[in-house]
């Protein structure tokens, strides 16, 4: 059995591949640049409080992914009821949006506007549905679009909805329209809609628990996970990857040869690290792919109860704040003391923009002022905070991205012993289950000695359940 298997990145995708290989008597080597595994799905522990980077619901329609999660975590994987609402102009609205709630919450003036703009969009829809704006307006009407989709989506992506591909909406809002939402409100039996999941799984101590456990199991079975080990160079020869070079925590450069390579590091970084350097056309295609980043200002509040939701979407345009997580509502074990509450305040930004470059103190000041302003928490009750910056949190589906992916994909395919996996490794805006599935498939291909599953083609879109950015 092959032992010379090298996996780049130890997030959900890399770890799932490593776990499957180790279970089948291989001894994979995983290289992770950070000091802990889990990637975007890790959990940060601070003063015995556990902070998820965002909130990670575990949900999948794929049995192999579900089985793996349960096998790894057993009784520490709990069922969590879901409550999430939208905060807009001092009011809360159900999420997913139910028309009755939207209409009654709005007052007569806006209700008339919503209804007439919906009817207008049915009679005079946009003839093309190329952009997010066109896609959503055609289904909900322009008024609801501007209230419940535009502001939040633009906070997340930092670009006008007229520049976001309709494909993103089609993937994330699939199956939900005003008509289906009305039907759902009338009949709770209509649970085909991908967005309406009211229960999900969660590890008692956050998603990092799942992936730390996976790492331990890989090592128990003879694999090795090297943390603080940043892949810096990938040496190729003809149609093969020969070796990689990584920098360890002491700054030393090490070289590792391998027969099979799996990469979950961002596709753009993979291209940059190849040696010899790819042609300019490939480098340009990679540099045109963009990511959106995330800052979480995590606060500890000296209050037992603030609100019942797992998370709240902040649609109000007068604050930069995008979403708030209430971690004890995900699992009571996320906080060490029931008299306190920990919140994750999420800000979407670009790496190195004005917000990203604010000092932690300034970010905290902004977050404390904003949460006070929208009356969710009095800033005097905040006892402590940490700031976590998450670069490359979202692959951006900008106009033209598909062409660039196509160029890179055909180039990467020439390396017969390299399989890209995961959300960033394949540049697909998907959830953890997609990452785990592509990791499992890459491992199975190695074990079976043939490419039975093409990781580039794995798409979980059809089964998707979350229309909001995550
Ligand atoms: C705010 C937010 C909320 C989310 N909520 C959900 C949710 O509710 N449910 C859900 O299923 N999904 C959710 N997701 C998506 C989920 O986080 C990702 O799908 C998942 O983490 C992707 O796993 P991955 O292994 O593909 O990539 P990553 O998690 O990014 O892992 C890649 C790993 O590679 C490492 N790496 C990068 N470069 C190098 C290098 N040069 N050398 C070595 N290592 C390197 C990174 O440090 C990282 O550990 C959310 C994402 C965000 C941003």
**Ligand species:** flavin-adenine dinucleotide
At CATH level 2, the architecture of the domain at 5-39 and 60-78 and 204-289 and 398-463 is 3-Layer(bba) Sandwich
- Structural shape: globular
Q: Name the beta content range.
A: 15-25%
Quantity of strands, as a count? 20
Topology, pairings included?
Elements (H helix, E strand, L loop, with lengths): L4 E4 L3 H12 L5 E3 L11 E4 L2 E4 L10 H11 L3 E5 L2 E5 L2 E5 L3 H8 L1 H16 L8 H9 L1 H16 L8 H7 L5 H9 L12 E5 L3 H14 L3 E3 L3 E8 L2 E8 L5 E5 L2 E4 L3 H7 E2 L4 H8 L3 E11 L9 E4 L8 E4 L14 E9 L10 H14 L8 E14 L5 H12 L5 E3 L11 H17 L22
Please tag this protein with its features.
470 residues, alpha/beta, seven-stranded mixed sheet, five-stranded parallel sheet, 14 helices, disordered C terminus, binds flavin-adenine dinucleotide
């Amino acid at each position: 059995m092959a032992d010379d298997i090298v996996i780049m990145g130890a997030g959900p995708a890399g770890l799932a591949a490593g776990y499957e290989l180790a279970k089948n008597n291989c001894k994979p080597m995983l290289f992770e640049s950070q000091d802990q595994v889990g990637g975007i799905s890790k959990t940060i522990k601070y003063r015995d409080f556990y902070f998820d980077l965002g909130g990670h619901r575990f949900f999948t329609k794929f049995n192999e992914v579900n089985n793996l999660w349960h096998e790894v975590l057993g009784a520490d994987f709990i069922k969590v009821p879901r409550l999430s609402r939208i905060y807009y102009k001092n009011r809360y609205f159900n999420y997913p949006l139910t028309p009755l709630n939207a209409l009654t919450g709005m007052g007569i003036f806006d209700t008339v506007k919503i209804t007439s703009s919906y009817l207008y969009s049915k009679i005079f829809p946009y003839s093309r549905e190329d952009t997010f704006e066109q896609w959503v307006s055609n289904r909900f009407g322009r008024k609801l679009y501007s209230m419940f989709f535009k502001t939040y989506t633009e906070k997340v992506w930092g670009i006008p909805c007229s520049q976001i591909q309709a494909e993103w909406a089609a993937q994330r809002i699939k199956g939900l329209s005003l008509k289906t939402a009305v039907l759902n409100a009338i009949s709770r039996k209509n649970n085909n809609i991908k967005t309406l999941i009211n229960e999900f799984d969660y590890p008692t101590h956050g998603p990092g628990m799942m992936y730390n456990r996976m790492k331990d199991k890989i090592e128990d079975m003879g694999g090795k996970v090297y943390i603080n080990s940043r892949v810096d160079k990938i040496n190729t020869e003809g149609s093969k990857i020969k070796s990689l070079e990584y920098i360890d925590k002491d700054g030393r450069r090490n070289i590792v040869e391998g027969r099979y390579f799996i990469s979950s590091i961002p596709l753009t970084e993979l291209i940059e690290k190849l040696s010899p350097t790819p042609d300019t056309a490939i480098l340009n295609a990679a540099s045109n792919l963009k990511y959106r980043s995330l800052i979480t200002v995590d606060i500890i509040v000296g209050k037992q109860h603030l609100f019942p939701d797992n998370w709240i979407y902040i649609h109000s345009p007068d604050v930069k704040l995008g979403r708030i997580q209430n971690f004890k509502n995900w699992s009571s074990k996320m906080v060490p003391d029931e008299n306190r509450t920990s919140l994750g305040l999420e800000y979407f930004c670009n790496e190195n923009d004005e917000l990203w470059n604010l000092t932690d103190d300034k970010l905290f000041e902004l977050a404390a002022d904003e949460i006070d302003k929208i009356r969710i928490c009095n800033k005097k009750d905040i006892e402590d905070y940490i700031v976590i910056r998450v670069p490359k949190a979202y692959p951006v589906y900008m106009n033209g991205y598909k062409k660039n992916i196509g160029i890179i994909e055909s180039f990467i395919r020439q390396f017969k012993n390299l399989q890209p996996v995961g959300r960033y490794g394949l540049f697909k805006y998907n959830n953890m289950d997609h990452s785990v599935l592509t990791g499992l498939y890459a491992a199975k291909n190695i074990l079976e000695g043939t490419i039975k599953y093409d990781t580039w083609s794995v798409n979980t879109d059809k089964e998707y359940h979350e229309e909001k950015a995550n």
